[in-house]
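Issue: ligand-bound run for zinc ion - logging full I/O for the record.

Environment: standard queue, default settings, no custom constraints.

Inputs:
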Amino acid sequence: MRGHAGGNGLRTACAVVLVLVVTACATPPEAGTVHSGGGSSRADGDGSIPENESISLQDNDHPAIANLDPALLAAVRAAAVDAAARGVELKVTSGWRSKRYQQRLLDEATARYRSAEEARKLVHPPEKSKHVTGHAIDIGPTAAADWLIQHGADHGLCQAFANEMWHFELLTTPGGQCPQPQGTALG
Ligand SMILES: [Zn+2]
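Outputs:
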């Protein structure tokens, strides 16, 4: 009698191994390198917007928008709806700024004009700037700022300084009258 061993086929188990690759995204620390040029404004969290650039009022993730006084932001957004109905788009060229960023702007102005005194006529120090507290916003382009000078008071928005047609603050009640823009101090 011949036994027949067999029939037990080998089964191959295929193990599927899922490898999860976890990438840690490090945010650059507050202190450190000062970036110049575009692309870095968001990461360093100081609210900077590169010169000659602007952002949308809806850019909620940008520190320049996110850290604005909510009443100011609501007023500007409401004004932007009015403006859009007239074919004018309001863009933000500067909003909230960190103290560090404001200081940097002052330092840059000091270097450019080779005079701290001249620089302070153009850029407020951090402790005086309404941008640092989130109570000021700069609007562009020129046509948009011009529109807001004429119609911003409907939402309480006024041009604060005579020589900064782009700089707006909540300075009156909606529908009220704006005070005369200040002649010398700058934002
Ligand atoms: Zn300003």
